[in-house]
């Protein structure tokens, strides 16, 4: 049974890279009829941010990435919040010490700082590892009665992993293939602290094991931790899960990882939902009017594609086609124009009834109430040009309010000597129309043009200017039908005034 987890730390808003990690875990789980867990990794109390956990859960819900077990849901391995699992980790740290895989280190922060600075002064870097550990204050060096005395006296300590000497590790990553490293290049990472809190590395491995995780799918920034993690599995005598490290998400232009600042600077969201931090609200995709399906589709293609040029995928298609082995190694460039394109596509797919409801809510906030059947017609006429529901207002505000001014340039070009007469005569014909329906109205006006031996260009633009105020918008007969006889005739007289 495939079991995967999304294991974010609640340190702020969930970055779009984290959302993609959650999505790929979800797709992989569903594809293999497995289970998807949400674990909150909050062992680092210094980086804990109030509200972040709730934000993560709300975002997953908005996107429809439902999890089978986890925080807020429970499950057979509860609790799923690491801070609530605190009492569990000490025994594992002690087990590693007892088996010679880890040791107590009593060096104080100040002592280590001095060593760091001294090394720096010589142009070197101090690393706690195979080369230095024998000269430092730890249980590998100190006599055991002294170690016991330190512990009994409540001296501060950390438990460090004793990285094996000079071993060439050959590891496998489902995306990157074979990864080889010599353990001498790695340091003795801290696993546990005397305040009883494990570090990320220990808690992550213990929990993945206890929660029966079969595949660890996470961002590339964790690739350097893979050797330590595999060695921890070896040290505990546990079977390791398979690893897959997802490629970075790159800035739209230039080099480097997409950051929160890129979004602010270039004006696009990098978070799923709105997030308020230090009194400042950063807009998320949902707040900017993106549909969750569009974001899912866009993220699915950041670093993966099924090997053809299909671009629009429903969640079910993604589940059916997703394959970790087809995920790319190279970073995936974030293109804010592309997600707009997806949103446009998804908007076209939506029914006019659904769009009418969404647009109706927006109008209500402006104090405008319109019959649903009318709104359905309006969104139908506008949707081809809309990317967001918000666009309906900009594209079609003339449906709700008569123009208060007329585009000067267009007037200069279109408003001729004969225009007033034309507008007046058309108004008179329309006033007598029995059935105010677009195609019928089109017949009346075209007949008038033919009878008077006029050109379309002498009539249509001025009618449009009267109804819309500028030379924009859908078919003018459709506009007439929607706004009705009285309003149409009023607008025609108004331009005469
Ligand atoms: N808590 C880590 C993070 O915030 C999880 C990394 C992992 O999936 O192992 O990204």
TrEMBL record:
Q: Which GO terms describe its molecular function?
A: glutamate-tRNA ligase activity
Q: What is its EC number?
A: 6.1.1.17
Q: Which reaction does it catalyse?
A: tRNA(Glu) + L-glutamate + ATP = L-glutamyl-tRNA(Glu) + AMP + diphosphate
EC class of the enzyme, as a word: ligase
Where it mainly occurs, coarsely classed, is cytoplasm
Residue ranges annotated for the Aminoacyl-tRNA synthetase class I anticodon-binding domain, each copy included: 371-494
- Looking at the record, the residues that make up the Glutamyl/glutaminyl-tRNA synthetase class Ib catalytic domain are 1-341
Pfam families reported for this sequence: Anticodon_2, tRNA-synt_1c
Q: Where is this motif: 'HIGH' region?
A: 8-18
| Residue numbers binding ATP | 260
SUPFAM superfamilies found in the cross-reference section:
An anticodon-binding domain of class I aminoacyl-tRNA synthetases (SSF48163), Nucleotidylyl transferase (SSF52374)
Where located? Cytoplasm
| Residue numbers covered by motif 'KMSKS' region | 257-261
Regions crossing the membrane: none
| Keywords tagged on the record | Aminoacyl-tRNA synthetase, ATP-binding, Cytoplasm, Ligase, Nucleotide-binding, Protein biosynthesis
Q: What does this protein do?
A: Catalyzes the attachment of glutamate to tRNA(Glu) in a two-step reaction: glutamate is first activated by ATP to form Glu-AMP and then transferred to the acceptor end of tRNA(Glu).
Q: HAMAP family per the record?
A: Glu_tRNA_synth_type1
- Quaternary context: Monomer.
Indicate the family of this protein. Answer: Belongs to the class-I aminoacyl-tRNA synthetase family. Glutamate--tRNA ligase type 1 subfamily.
Q: What is the recorded name of this protein?
A: Glutamate--tRNA ligase
Identify the species of origin.
Capnocytophaga bilenii
């Amino acid at each position: 049974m495939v079991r995967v987890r999304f294991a974010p730390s609640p340190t702020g808003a969930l970055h779009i890279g984290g959302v993609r990690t959650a999505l790929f875990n979800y797709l992989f789980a569903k594809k293999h009829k497995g289970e998807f867990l949400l674990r909150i990794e909050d062992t680092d109390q210094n980086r804990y941010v109030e509200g972040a956990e709730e934000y993560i859960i709300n975002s997953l819900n908005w996107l429809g990435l439902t999890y089978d077990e986890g925080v807020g849901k429970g499950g057979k391995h509860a609790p799923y919040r690491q801070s609530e699992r605190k009492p569990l980790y000490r025994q594992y740290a002690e087990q590693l010490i007892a088996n010679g895989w880890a040791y107590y280190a009593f060096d104080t922060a100040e002592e280590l700082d001095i060593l760091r600075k001294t090394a720096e002064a010589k142009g070197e870097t101090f690393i706690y590892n195979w080369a230095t550990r024998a000269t430092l204050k730890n249980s590998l060096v100190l006599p055991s009665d002294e170690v016991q005395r330190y512990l009994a006296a409540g001296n501060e300590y950390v438990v460090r992993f004793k990285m094996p000497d000079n071993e060439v590790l050959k590891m496998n990553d489902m995306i990157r293939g074979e990864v080889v490293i010599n353990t001498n290049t790695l340091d003795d990472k801290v696993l546990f602290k005397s305040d009883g809190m494990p570090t990320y590395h220990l808690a992550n491995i213990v929990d993945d094991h206890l929660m029966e995780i079969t595949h660890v799918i996470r961002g590339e920034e964790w690739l350097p931790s893979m050797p330590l993690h595999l060695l921890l599995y070896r040290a505990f005598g546990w079977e390791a899960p398979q690893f897959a490290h997802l490629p970075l998400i790159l800035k739209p232009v230039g080099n480097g990882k997409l950051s929160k600042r890129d979004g602010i600077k270039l004006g696009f969201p990098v978070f799923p939902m709105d997030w308020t931090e230090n009194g400042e609200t950063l807009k998320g995709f949902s707040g900017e009017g993106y549909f969750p399906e569009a974001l899912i589709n866009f993220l699915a293609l950041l670093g993966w594609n099924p090997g053809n040029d299909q671009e629009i995928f429903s969640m079910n298609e993604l589940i059916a086609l997703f394959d970790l082995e087809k995920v790319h190694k190279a970073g995936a460039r974030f293109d804010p124009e592309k997600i707009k394109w997806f949103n446009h596509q998804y908007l076209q797919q939506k029914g006019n009834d659904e769009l009418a409801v969404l647009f109706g809510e927006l109008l209500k906030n402006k104090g405008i109430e319109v019959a649903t059947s009318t709104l359905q017609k309006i969104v139908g006429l506008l949707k081809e040009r809309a990317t967001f529901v918000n666009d309906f207002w900009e594209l079609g505000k003339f449906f709700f309010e008569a123009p208060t001014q007329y585009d000067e340039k267009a007037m200069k070009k279109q408003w001729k000597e004969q225009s007033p007469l034309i507008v007046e005569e058309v108004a008179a014909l329309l006033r007598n129309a029995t059935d105010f329906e677009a195609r019928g109205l089109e017949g009346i006006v075209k007949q008038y043009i033919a009878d008077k031996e006029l050109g379309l260009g002498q009539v249509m633009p001025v009618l449009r200017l009267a109804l819309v105020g500028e030379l924009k918008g859908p078919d003018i007969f459709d506009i007439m039908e929607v706004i009705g006889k009285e309003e149409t005739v009023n607008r025609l007289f108004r331009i005469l005034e």
